[in-house]
Design goal:
The chain is built from seven helices and six strands, in the order H-E-E-H-E-H-H-E-E-H-H-H-E. With 207 residues, it is of the alpha/beta class. It has three domains: 57 residues; 80 residues, Outer membrane lipoprotein wza fold like, CATH 3.10.560; 64 residues, Photosystem II 12 kDa extrinsic protein (DNA polymerase, domain 1, Orthogonal Bundle).
């Protein structure tokens, strides 16, 4: 009887050791699988960013340059182009132009109108300019709504259903993905579903 008990105990011990070793071996495999998934996810995000960058670099936008430039008119520039590039396409400034009025380092938006005033114009309107927004600056809010590619956290929180957490999630997504290509893409942000989108779609825009 004692011998049988010892044999049973020995068998149970062997089974416990066998099962334990199996669990131990599985843990590294699970960790490796999780790492592989994370790496794959990062690679997919990187490819998505690269595609957006390539798409943007090949796009063209139109800008209307007028005022004190040599050749006023509508010009085609690359997406992400700066004001100084558009002015150069228009032949440069005239002698009367106030070259410091516009922030020439600002990025141009498609369909934008750039007006270069003369020095006399800005001199007579100096008081109005000093009390307003910086000359040549581009606001995140326009007549068509809030630009989700430029808006600050505070501006995003003005939208219905967008609190601090969702606003921060939008900023994080925008940074990781290199911006939004359409207003519908905001639904890809964690926490923003169809219900929230329906509330804000009429108040948001992209470049």
């Amino acid at each position: 009887m004692q011998r049988r008990t010892k044999i049973i105990g020995l068998l149970i011990g062997i089974m416990v050791i066998f099962l334990s070793s199996g669990c131990i071996k599985k843990q590294p495999v699970q960790k490796e699988s999780l790492k592989a998934v994370e790496i794959q996810k990062k690679e997919e995000q990187e490819k998505k960013r690269e595609k957006k960058t390539e798409k943007k670099s090949g796009e063209k936008i139109l800008v209307h340059v007028c005022g004190e430039v040599i050749n006023p008119g509508v010009y085609e520039v690359g997406a992400g182009g700066r004001i100084w590039e558009a002015i150069r396409l228009a032949g440069g400034f005239t002698r009367e132009a106030d070259q410091d009025y516009l922030n020439q380092a600002k990025e141009i938006r498609d369909g934008e109108k750039l007006y270069v005033p003369g020095r006399q114009e800005t001199a007579t309107g100096a008081a109005a300019l000093s009390s307003g927004e910086e000359a040549g600056s581009l606001s995140a809010s326009g007549p068509e709504g809030i630009n989700i590619n430029r808006a600050s956290k505070e501006e995003l929180m003005k939208l219905d259903g967008i609190g601090e957490a969702k606003a921060e999630a939008i900023l994080t997504y925008r940074k990781e993905q290199g911006g939004f290509q359409s207003v519908e893409e905001i639904k890809e942000v964690s926490g923003i579903g169809e219900g929230v989108f329906q509330k804000i779609k009429g108040r948001i825009q992209v470049d």
